[in-house]
Amino acid sequence: MKYPALANTIAAGSSREMLPILSPLDGSTLSEAPLSTAADVDAAAKAAAEAQVEWGARTIRQRAQVFFRYRQLLEQHQHELAELIHEENGKMPGEGLAEIVRAIEVTEFACALPQMIAGEVLEVSSNVECRTQRSPLGVTASITPFNFPMMVPHWTIPIALCLGNAMLFKPSEKTPLSAMRTADLLQQAGLPDGLFSVVHGDRNSVEAICDHPLIRAVTFVGSTAAAKAVYIRSTGNLKRALCLGGAKNHLIVLPDAIEEQTAVNVIASMAGCAGQRCMAAASMIAVGKVDSIIDKVCEEAKKLVPGKNLGAVISLESKQRIERYIDEAEAAGARVLVDGRNTVVAGREGGYYVGPTVLDGVTREMKIAQDEVFGPVLAILRASDVEQAVAIENASPYGNAAAVYTQRGGVARTIANQASAGMIGVNIGVPVPLEPFGFGGWNDSRFGVGDITGRGSIEFWTQTKKITSRWSTELKQGWLGD
Ligand code: NAD
Question: Which one of the listed residues 162, 210, 278, 298 is annotated catalytic?
Fold first, then answer.
């Protein structure tokens, strides 16, 4: 094992079953992490509740100071963190670095929260004023997937904590190493002990989180099936919940799109992080005659070399699942223009690599057109006009992102209005809204109300108190309606 065995930041005592952590780069064992039990969740929740009392009583300006220091630490350690992400997730180090940049951005948003949460005040009656203030919820939890071990947790951690909450963080059991570094750096920045704790584990620990009475709010990011289950279980236990699920993003390419720019952008969207992004291009809808763009898309795809500028997928099971989708699509009549199956990287024969893959002639009925494949695979579907293209996009049960490539503003606007997705790109394949715009999809890509970052997240992590005061020497008792 390259790294010592991991432990929860709050240990409940007895020994746990351990799960090996394998590097997707070569299949080697990096470390192992405990499969936490309900008793572990209970210990972490109790420590969090205790620490939150003092933390919640600080002013938000005092709490923000921790995040100014934390932001500096993230920057200082960005290369080391990017390397760790590369090892545990398999993405390229540059892609790991991009995660830290995004984590820093959200931390900066948290640093600005004192300015953003200023309340309202109004003299609602003579000498009577009503003012609002935001209070933390108490203990919260954040459950995250493997594909962004640093970026996705940072959608919640700095914002929830800076707003005065405590948090249990349940990282993916596939990528728990950077979670430990997050906890270390938060402690170095001055966060009180017990306020933020890492609880390792799988579905069982998530269910214990959903059931724990001290936990008031849960965010989840992961596959749609799990997001639904966590939403139902958490809200069934009367918690606030916001659960982001999977995706199937459609890029609509029109004949007037700028050829080279579109091709480069479509492939970057499809293959970045080996296609394991909830914002990745899964399907390209080619409207009318766009064959020269498709030729360029294939040219661009062929520039990607696994292990050199294309990372690994997370597991052998993922590699096999992705290749099965390609096999089935081919058997159903799709043409494989660029084939990434059976990829082996010399010197890393144990790694889980899938090469870039482009399929043309995919039809709406094929599984590859409907399911989330989560690999570097682009399925091209043909549409005769914009209406048909929008109908294909609208038929997907998901609704994370969609994009259109064109030089005509009016058409772009129509498609942006008609697409059934929460984040839309115009000539942009990965339309992530940066802060203060919130991140969040629609339909089966999100359960709950609001976005996970941005201004909307303030509403999720706080409750509003309305204080009505009268300071007057008059004897009069009633005041309503004066
Ligand atoms: P996953 O659903 O397998 O796991 C996510 C988390 O849930 C992990 O911490 C895991 O331990 C836990 N978990 C797994 N099954 C569970 C269950 N049945 N009940 C409760 N908890 C469970 O997802 P993953 O494979 O780690 O990540 C990939 C998925 O995440 C993709 O579907 C991707 O689209 C999605 N994702 C979505 C967004 C978004 O913003 N919508 C962002 C990133 C990833």
Answer: 278
Claim to verify: residue 239 and residue 255 sit in the same structural domain: no
pLDDT value of residue 473: 80
The 3-class secondary structure across the chain, one letter per residue, is CCCCCCCCCCCCCCCCCEEEEECCCCCCEEEEEECCCHHHHHHHHHHHHHHHHHHHHCCHHHHHHHHHHHHHHHHHCHHHHHHHHHHHHCCCHHHHHHHHHHHHHHHHHHHCHHHHCCCCEEEEECCEEEEEEEEECCEEEEECCCCCCCHHHHHHHHHHHHCCCEEEEECCCCCCHHHHHHHHHHHHHCCCCCCEEECCCCHHHHHHHHHCCCEEEEEEECCHHHHHHHHHHHHHCCCEEEEECCCCEEEEECCCCCHHHHHHHHHHHHHHHHHCCCCCEEEEEEECCCHHHHHHHHHHHHCCCECCCECCCCCHHHHHHHHHHHHHHHHCCCEEEECCCCCCECCECCCCCCCCEEEECCCCCCHHHHCCCCCCEEEEEEECCHHHHHHHHHHCCCCCEEEEECCCHHHHHHHHHHCCCCEEEECCCCCCCCCCCCCCCCHHHEECCCCCCCHHHHHHHEEEEEEEEECCCCCCCCCCCC
Owning domain of residue 401: 249-426
Q: Is 243 one of the annotated active-site residues of the chain?
A: no
Q: What is the CATH number of the domain that holds 120?
A: 3.40.605.10
How far away, in angstroms, is 243 Cα from ligand 1 center? 10
- Is 1 among the domain residues? no
Residue 51 lies in a domain: yes
pLDDT computed for residue 334 by the predictor:
98
pLDDT per residue over 18-60, tens digit each?
Answer: 999 999 999 999 999 999 999 999 999 999 999 999 999 999 9
Region 111-131: mean pLDDT is 94
Q: Are residues 174 and 43 in the same domain?
A: yes
Give the residue whose CA is nearest to atom 34 of ligand 1.
246
Number of separate domains in the chain = 2
Return the ligand 1 atom nearest residue 445 CA: 41
Is the shortest distance between the CB of 209 and ligand 1 below 6 Å?
no
